[in-house]
Specification:
mainly alpha
Length: 265
């Protein structure tokens, strides 16, 4: 589009140059004083041409004014062409897009959260697990059941810690991709030819920052989950220990004497 506008202006400039040259060649004739009376030329004695210097000067003045108008029009066209060039640059789209890379990073982190062991990141499942495994033990529960519940809580805690470490590894793996993408976007922003390209580069940098915040949120969630499971296990273990101690200290039926047979006879 820019080349077409500039190519259109070249013929206008050549016409203006030719007109200026003609006017420059004709100007001495207008400035030359007339030393004789109005000229009378006879051609074959049949016709006569009368030279009018006033009319000639007016014609030259009109030509000068016309040339000035043409020059003004050329300047106006040049300004409009430059304005169109600037608008074309402002509307030029950024040739680089980081959307797919950012979406891949977010999807990878989300997959790690979805693979949470034992207790998922869902409110309903958390409530059910705490009611089932972290509630107050029943005094009527057997020792085998108390031991099985304690092992389940320990497994949940270990799974939460492993999940947190996996999310940490995934977020750390995204750092290099984020660094390379940030360098590319900054370079694109600095080399932007128009306002649209600069704005798009800035928007993509904001999207990159949002993806980093998403990774940080996932990391905090996974780490907090692991810490919460560990604290819940300790609290449940303390309550279970209290129940078992209470059982041990509760008086029983006591010793009841009976007959003992030492030999078969």
């Amino acid at each position: 589009m820019t080349r077409n506008i500039i190519a259109t202006l070249h013929p206008i400039r050549r016409i203006a140059g030719t007109t200026a040259l003609a006017l420059a060649l004709a100007a001495p004739l207008a400035l030359t004083p007339v030393l004789t009376t109005p000229a009378h030329a006879f051609f074959g004695g049949l016709s006569r041409i009368v030279y009018d210097p006033t009319n000639h000067a007016e014609n030259l003045l009109t030509a000068a004014r016309t040339l000035e108008q043409i020059n003004n029009q050329i300047a106006s066209l040049q300004n409009e062409a430059q304005m169109l060039i600037n608008q074309a640059r402002d509307l030029a789209s950024l040739p680089h897009s980081s959307l797919q890379q950012l979406q891949r990073n977010v999807t990878r982190t989300q997959q790690l959260l979805d693979e949470a062991q034992s207790i998922a990141f869902e409110v309903q499942e958390v409530d059910q697990a705490f009611e089932r495994e972290y509630g107050t033990p029943d005094l009527s529960m057997s020792e085998q059941q108390l031991l099985a519940d304690a092992r389940t809580r320990w497994s949940n805690t270990m799974g939460g810690l492993q999940d947190a470490m996996r999310v940490q590894a995934g977020v750390t793996g995204n750092i290099e991709a984020q660094r390379a993408e940030m360098a590319t976007l900054v370079e694109q922003s600095q080399g932007a030819t128009g306002a649209l390209q600069a704005s798009q580069a800035g928007n993509q940098l904001l999207a990159l920052q949002s993806q980093q915040l998403s990774d940080l949120t996932a990391l905090l969630a996974a780490t907090g989950r692991a810490e919460a499971l560990a604290e819940a296990e300790r609290a449940a273990a303390a309550e279970q220990g209290r129940i078992q101690r209470e059982r041990f200290l509760t008086p029983g039926t006591g010793y009841q004497p009976g007959n003992a047979r030492m030999f078969n006879n």
